[in-house]
Hints:
Elements (H helix, E strand, L loop, with lengths): L21 H11 L7 H8 L3 H13 L3 E2 L6 E2 L1 H7 L11 H12 L7 H9 L4 E2 L1 H14 L6 H16 L21 E8 L4 E7 L4 H4 L1 H15 L5 E3 H6 L4 H5 L3 H9 L5 E4 L6 E4 L5 H7 L3
Antiparallel strand pairs: 1-2, 3-5, 4-5, 6-8, 7-8
Helix pairs in contact: 7-8, 10-14
Amino acid sequence: MTLAAVRPRFSGHETFACRFAWLPKAVRLIARDPKALSDDERAILELGLGKNMVRALRFWLEAFDVASGKTGAWSLLPFGKTLLGDDGLDPYIERVETQWLLHWHLSTAVENPLFAWRHILYRRMRPDFTRSELLAEMRTEGERLGYEHSDVTLLQHADVFIHSYFGSLNPASPEDALDGPLVDLGLLRRLGRRRGADRIEPVFTLTRIPIGEIGSGVVDYAIASYWSARRAGESVVTFRDLAYGEGSPGATLRMETDDLRDHLERSPALWSYRPSGDAGSVTALAELDPARLLREIYT
Length: 299
């Protein structure tokens, strides 16, 4: 995909990170009345949320690949239907695998990635940052891509990333104190404080996650999804791509490269790994079928 074809999203979340109960509540509403979510007043009444939160919820439904409302009538997308729909595999997001899958879908959009997610997970060399450092980087990266967003918009977007994985630092209301479905993953943590240009700020850092906390089924699903979306038609991909590439399992799930390598070697029914340092190659031994692998996670 060319640079021009990628159009990152900077806003739409109304500065609200997704709350734990929002997706299941919205899915139930869509099942009852597919058009209700498109009507502000009806959605406010049915969901018990304010207008801006309803708009944020619509954004998150699409960003998580759960549902689409492009026609005015909302419908579940295949991923959302399989997990959260009637007879879904985990309709109330009770399993950690579901949380990892939501993180995967949120982070790996190809054509319209969330700008902060793309920058933090795939563009930065260091895992640690402060809010002001992130703002400066996002301003530069946005300008490089031809966008001229205000610092307010960029910082709000960065804060939504932080709140999505760390929770709200200074909740202004009881609703703000409710964590979302990604906080429990432990992808982001505090790492003390350091002085910036004009003040001392909290430092955040992305963490590495042991594969045992993610689940081998989620990793296989991520590999197949990455391959289908970004390497379609290719019979072989490099280990480097799977470990470090944009939207890759290694970079998105924050796995150690040794964990990913060991997983490929322990999965001979699915993958053939030929080691050669970081430039090893991986061949798919079965048809790439993310939908089947998704269902197998819950069997």
